[in-house]
Amino acid sequence: MEPLDPLGLVSLYLLLSGYLYTDLSHPTKEGGKENSTISNAETRFVCVYFILVSYEVYLFFLFRPLQNFFLIIGRRPAGWMAAVGDLQFEEFGNAAATAAENPGATTISIEGPGESPAHQAGLPRGSGGEEDDELLGNDDSDKTELLAGQKKSSPFWTFEYYQTFFDVDTYQVFDRIKGSLLPIPGKNFVRLYIRSNPDLYGPFWICATLVFAIAISGNLSNFLIHLGEKTYHYVPEFRKVSIAATIIYAYAWLVPLALWGFLMWRNSKVMNIVSYSFLEIVCVYGYSLFIYIPTAVLWIIPQKAVRWILVMIALGVSGSVLAMTFWPAVREDNRRIALATIVTIVLLHTLLSVGCLAYFFDAPEMDHLPTATAAPNQTVAAAKAR
Amino acid sequence: MAKAAESSGEPGTTSPRPLFAGLSDISISQDIPVEGEITIPMRSHIREFDSSTLNESVQNTIMRDLKAVGKKFMHVLYPRKSNTLLRDWDLWGPLILCVTLALMLQRSSVDSEKDGGPQFAEVFVIVWFGAVTITLNSKLLGGNISFFQSLCVLGYCILPLTVAMLVCRLVLLAEQGPINFMVRLFVVIVMFTWSIVASTAFLADSQPPNRKALAIYPVFLFYFVISWMILTFTPQ
């Protein structure tokens, strides 16, 4: 795989320079002939570029991590992926190396009835992670493997499969919310609270509440800010609900997906001790958004300083929960990549909160300046004094 | 039959022979006819029900359905723990209520600015998809209520909020101001609480006891959003 990489890079460079050459020799004019020539060159460039980029993406991102994808998916919900699991043991260099290092390694694999016995006796699938967990003295790993295998054993087209994701009691949900509000240094949210019982109840309903909290608070805050103005006509701004829903659900599902893909990819290069399943990452992200619900309600207060202090507090709490969760997963990796991962996670979180504040909540002081006449000034003073 | 009883009774009273040992000796003579009547109590009721709904007048059919819907409205307005809403569920009431609410809440066509109140379709979608989501949630948490029963209950419990909408519409005909807003706020809060109490009375029993709060919270959110839409409704 590695020797092909310079080939891709060189081809891309040649194509790019070819495109630039075409562009330079036929500069843009208003004539139709030049436009058609450039569009031909552009079309050619785009087609070849697309093919090459897809090839690169396939090499780098799909080939190895796709194997790991099937591996991880096949480990937990064992029903439908059992058939695909037959494919996954063909090329797995890391597992073979680990098997060579630890010939006496035993693994426990709990799978559905579709698994063939040859595979259970065969390669120690993912045994590196389990053994390292045991070496660390983490007793949860064996139990969690057993529990995970026993719980999610229905095929994915039955209702019971999805019921396993809602297998939480009221006190468990409250505990998880409490854990997301009080990040204790050194305690991992996933290990402490989720314990391989990731639920979808928390992420889904916290996101739903957050959507409505942001939309309603934004509406209320704008109403209070513009209260005295004569030209202001109150509108419920219902469209913002759908925009808020898109933003928040996209963040809560796509960012965990990207992060999980990235962690799987790094796992194939560096054997990490801690690895999370996709649902656990979704769970952490969902519960870490809980702090924004009271923050959104408090953002109604039309003071810039108050709002930014609230942003800092919320970012501090949820950012630290996320950072402390994912630091053990990237710790063994290259130092710079680990730091870059954590910084990216916190940066995306910052982007979400600042973006929501900027879009849904009007700035409090700026709107008063253009309408500086006698009557609104008095109402402004009254509103500020409130 | 009497012969069989006697011959099987005798071994028990006279000597310790195994039970039913004498059954092999029994013969039922051919010339005792076996005849009788099997009556199932419900059957005659069903038979006349089936044939009569085809022949009855349209007014009868409609009045029967309307009476069923009206009875359920009464059950919502005076919530007691009863099974009527759950047992004979129907979706007529929720449809009527949802359409009424959406018609009254929709943005008027004169005011066509982008950011206004919800459109008819938005209210409709929120009500029905909200109800479906809550039903799925309660079923996934392990509740033993059927899908349409839960939809029926959630739909019927919008009735207090529809009444609140009507009252708000009437109050908005008077002059605008903070008193107007206070009256509307009070009415909406009261009706919101009524909806929650009514739906909890019907839905709470079907949930496992350690997950009741998890199943009731989405209902609270659902009615809160509808109340917010009613409260922020501005005419013109």
UniProtKB/TrEMBL annotation, chain A:
Region entry Disordered, spans: 105-140
Location within or outside the cell: Golgi apparatus membrane; Golgi apparatus, cis-Golgi network membrane
Membrane topology: Multi-pass membrane protein
Top-level lineage group: Eukaryota
InterPro entries: Yip1_dom, Yip5/YIPF1/YIPF2
Membrane-spanning segments: 46-66, 200-221, 241-265, 277-302, 308-330, 337-361
Residue ranges with Acidic residues bias: 129-139
One Pfam family, short name: Yip1
Boundaries of every Yip1 domain copy: 181-352
Key words, A-Z: Membrane, Transmembrane, Transmembrane helix
Keyword Transmembrane helix found: yes
Family of this protein: Belongs to the YIP1 family.
Protein name: Protein YIPF
Protein's gene: YIPF1
UniProtKB/TrEMBL annotation, chain B:
Cross-referenced Pfam families: Yip1
Domain of life: Eukaryota
The keyword Membrane is annotated on this UniProt entry: yes
Keyword Membrane: yes
Subcellular location per the Swiss-Prot or TrEMBL entry: Golgi apparatus membrane; Membrane
UniProt KW keywords: Membrane, Transmembrane, Transmembrane helix
GO biological process per UniProt: endoplasmic reticulum to Golgi vesicle-mediated transport
Topology within the bilayer: Multi-pass membrane protein
Span list, region Disordered: 1-21
Ranges in coiled-coil conformation: none
Transmembrane segments: 91-108, 120-141, 147-174, 181-203, 215-234
GO cellular component terms attached to this protein's record: Golgi membrane; trans-Golgi network
Residue stretches making up the Yip1 domain: 76-229
Family: Belongs to the YIP1 family.
Protein name (database record): Protein YIPF
Organism: Acinonyx jubatus (Cheetah)
Gene designation per UniProt: YIPF6
